[in-house]
Amino acid sequence: MKLTILGGGGFRVPLVHRALLGDHAEGRVTRVTLYDVDAGRLAAIGGVLAEQAAGVPDAPEVTATTDLDEALRGADFVFSAIRVGGLAGRAADERVALAEGVLGQETVGAGGIAYGLRTVPVAVSVARRIAEVAPDAWVINFTNPAGLVTEAMSRVLGDRVIGICDSPVGLGRRVARLLGADPDRAFLDYAGLNHLGWLRGVRVDGRDELPRLLADPEALGSFEEGRLFGPEWLRSLGAVPNEYLHYYYFNREAVRSYREARLTRGAYLREQQEAFYGSPSLATWRATLAEREATYMAANREAAGAGERAEEDLEPGGYEQVALALMRAVARDERTTLILNVRNGTTLPVLDADAVVEVPCVVGSGGAHPLSVSPLPDHAVGLVTAVKAAEREVLAAAESGSRQAAVKAFALHPLVDSVSVARRLLDAYVNEHPALGYLAQPRHR
């Protein structure tokens, strides 16, 4: 079985490769093709993978190419993890937004809109090549903003593209551990959009155990989301929000913390990864990864006074495990339940059938099918519908080149508080990113 990884020179590719090395079952991935536009990064990651595979007798064969069609040809699965504009683009997204006093995070607020506006056209182009060159392939999308990009690609590929994210995985693992439940046996009643979801129930043997946690202030304050949001707020919500909702519930504090930091997250990762790619090896990759995990959402923890990350939360094991479980389920019809980004159908009645949502799905050889979840409470409906409206304007702008739609995308987002700010943001981002030239202001003669 062949897996093609788009963004194959990316820093997190060795995590996927490591997961594949641990899979020895019949029908496993035997060939991996790395695709990237940057040959130097491909060579660096290829060297790390070779080191990682040393001594593993049935390790998948790894090849690399900068030719997209060559990479796609014969693929059974395509794992998309591209970053249009690189980390320099992410750092610019953050800087431009913060200059206007609004959030520039990679997937949330103005930064997420800017990233989407330059990524969606590329993702759609890739989807068209997949449909042409590898029409039978299943596409697993991790490219951020994951829900938005998955929805864009689904307009070409239908249900053969499935989005994944590691945030719900980590949340479910932490809550199940606190409740003394086996995460593999617990059903997580989780729903929303990517980076905008809520855990409303944890059912074990038909019984919802989450109320037991919500009734225990000490236990609520003992894990990452409890420290980030505070036990009182979790009890008020009657749910545990995805960590990214901190940007919404504590927006002023998050913006202030980001502005006061020595480096924004994107600038920090750019500096860190430049050092790694300058001297790549498995040892330096591991050290860089450990530092990356330890500093994850550091500005938010600083704003919340949450302290350092707990040791049990530092071990990566999120999206690559979801990707492997998803591939196993589809390729071998090993039915499982995973929280994924898929087309809504009738799962969340407040959204239309084609809207990509993040919900539990049953997965098998026929793909991923969303399961019934509890109705969203009113406060969640407001955020979900507002953010989806902004995402739809991104899709409209990317398809038509409409500046009006792009301004609406910024202005309709709950974390951008002014149409005037939205217009200035778009102009500033167009000046920063050549990929946004299609949204440049027409010149009048």
Task: Summarize the SSE layout with pairings.
Elements: E1 2-6, H1 13-21, E2 31-35, H2 39-53, E3 61-65, H3 68-72, E4 77-80, H4 86-99, H5 109-133, E5 138-141, H6 146-157, E6 161-163, H7 167-179, E7 187-193, E8 196-204, E9 207-208, H8 210-214, H9 217-220, H10 224-229, H11 231-237, E10 240-241, H12 246-249, H13 251-260, H14 265-278, H15 282-294, H16 298-304, H17 319-332, E11 336-343, E12 356-364, E13 367-370, H18 378-400, H19 403-412, H20 419-432
Parallel strand pairs: 1-2, 1-4, 2-3, 4-5, 5-6
Antiparallel strand pairs: 7-8, 8-9, 8-10, 11-12, 12-13
Helix pairs in contact: 1-2, 1-17, 4-5, 4-14, 4-20, 5-6, 5-18, 13-16, 14-15, 18-19, 19-20
Report on this structure.
The chain is α/β, with parallel strands linked by helices and 445 residues long. The chain has 20 helices and 13 strands. It has helices at 13-21, 39-53, 68-72, 86-99, 109-133, 146-157, 167-179, 210-214, 217-220, 224-229, 231-237, 246-249, 251-260, 265-278, 282-294, 298-304, 319-332, 378-400, 403-412, 419-432; strands at residues 2-6, 31-35, 61-65, 77-80, 138-141, 161-163, 187-193, 196-204, 207-208, 240-241, 336-343, 356-364, 367-370. Strands 3-2-1-4-5-6 form a six-stranded parallel β-sheet, sandwiched between helices. Strands 7, 8, 9 and 10 form a four-stranded antiparallel β-sheet that branches. Strand 1, helix 1 and strand 2 form a beta-alpha-beta unit. Helix 5 packs parallel to helix 6. It starts with a strand and ends in a 13-residue tail after the last helix. The model has no long low-confidence stretch (mean pLDDT 93).
